[in-house]
Amino acid sequence: MRDSIQFIKRQQPIIKRLLLIIAMLLAIYAVFPALIPSANSFETIMYRSGTYALIFLLLSLAITPLRRWLSICFTYLHAPYGKRLADWNFLIQYRRRIGLISALFALIHCIAYLHMEVVWIVDEAIEDALRRSFIWIGWLSITVYVVLTITSITAIQKKLKRTWRQIHRSVYGLLVLVLLHFFLAEKAGDTAYLPYVIIGGLLLIHRIVFAIVDRHNQRYDDGLEATR
Ligand code: HEM
């Protein structure tokens, strides 16, 4: 078992490159409708970039539960290796990468809106934000993305020390904002947001339950410290 986990660890450079290639292909696919303008180019770009940003955000948040459940399963199976959370620390490296991919799609989404909907007219953008609540929620989400992206730079991360952990917990607040944005952006009767709300809700419940359990056991691990 140890050998299999070590093997997966050794494949990390390949997996990381693969992730980057997938992100690049999806980004090209998301902005492709801009090259052949049609009546629904804007909606398609917004839909693809917005949902990809959300999917990668959910994936990055799933890394910590995955680590935890792998260690629980390996303990249950009495495996010689993989029972400790630390045995799965290598998975943490993917969280930042996947989070940054999510931020890239959020940026594409934001630029598409500014370019195609309000054509870079600030007054227009402000007016729209005041008129439609999901727009200002979107702006709030982008602000959180910017803070998380800047503070994920290793040098800044080291300078911030403990504050970094507190800042990065706001990723759960970001998830709530994005889900609310998606829900409010949908037309009446459209339930495309539902699977994302269910998965996001489960991840939030998981985070709360394990934070309580860990506090009770005087042990706290949310996977954040393992990055340092
Ligand atoms: C600058 C901030 C943002 C603005 C101005 C904005 C604007 C919009 C607009 C106008 C729509 C509706 C598109 C349509 O008419 O079909 C939309 C939908 C959506 N947005 Fe955003 N958004 C922002 C931030 C975000 C972020 C940060 C995310 C995700 C991480 C996101 C995810 C989504 C999703 C999933 C949809 C639903 C897509 C659909 O069903 O068409 N948005 N957004």
UniProtKB/TrEMBL annotation:
Topology in the lipid bilayer: Multi-pass membrane protein
InterPro entries documented for this protein: Fe3_Rdtase_TM_dom, MsrQ-like
Domain of life where this protein originates: Bacteria
Heme recorded as keyword: yes
Ranges that cross the membrane: 18-39, 51-77, 98-122, 134-155, 167-185, 191-213
Keywords in alphabetical order: Heme, Iron, Membrane, Metal-binding, Transmembrane, Transmembrane helix, Transport
Domain called Ferric oxidoreductase: residue spans: 50-178
Subcellular location(s) per record: Membrane
UniProt-listed Pfam families: Ferric_reduct
Identification of the protein by name: Ferric reductase-like transmembrane domain-containing protein
The species this protein was found in: Fluctibacter corallii
